[in-house]
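Limitations
The structure tokens in this dataset are predictions for the assembled complex, not deposited experimental models. Users should treat interface geometry with appropriate caution, especially where small molecules or nucleic acid strands are included. An illustrative entry is reproduced here so readers can see what is and is not provided.
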Amino acid sequence: MKKVNYRDIQPFPVDRPDASGVAARLLISRADGAPNFSMRMFELEPGGYTPRHSHSYEHLVFVLEGEGEVLLGGAFRPLAPGDAVFVPPDGEHQFRNTGGGTLRFLCLVPNASAVSDPLK
Amino acid sequence: MKKVNYRDIQPFPVDRPDASGVAARLLISRADGAPNFSMRMFELEPGGYTPRHSHSYEHLVFVLEGEGEVLLGGAFRPLAPGDAVFVPPDGEHQFRNTGGGTLRFLCLVPNASAVSDPLK
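Predicted assembly:
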């Protein structure tokens, strides 16, 4: 079991050539005993973006704060707080911050991918 | 794929004798093609509570709004926005609204349980 406020989990910069201005916090993961999937929080600076890529597993996303857009089904679609996004397995996707503040969202993934590389 | 704002998904009352003042919205589920786990949103009225129970699968929770408490590890612990909660398999748990407004949180579960009974 675990209860933690996200502010008490240190963000770490996601340092990849295909991403910019991205930090992540690992809120719940296999390290906590979660048997199936993990909860991460991503924070994108204004102008920041995650990699444009696809992979074999899904993302379940919930937007908490900020303005942005997501590549989904071949088109960029606007993102606002309260949006839930399902990125299916093998679906190309990218998240971009198009606003003036932080774009903050939860992104849940199956466990196997989450521990080795939190940006997946 | 799917992108939807939670406000556009109709909440439905959770009508169980062991719960009170609870509504749920199913944001992402197997019906959307999600292969492994589902995202639900729960809204508890002031004084509302979910069942005090346990089951074989986990919950991954994130508090969005309001004040409350969660039974976890045999004790009630305060809940505030930004809290992430991991309820392990077979862990007894209950969520209660102790504030004056809505207590709103996300609760993610493995798929098999989510479609048949969203309060699990």
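Some entries come with short summary sentences. For this one: The CA atoms of residues 24 and 42 of chain A lie 5 Å apart.
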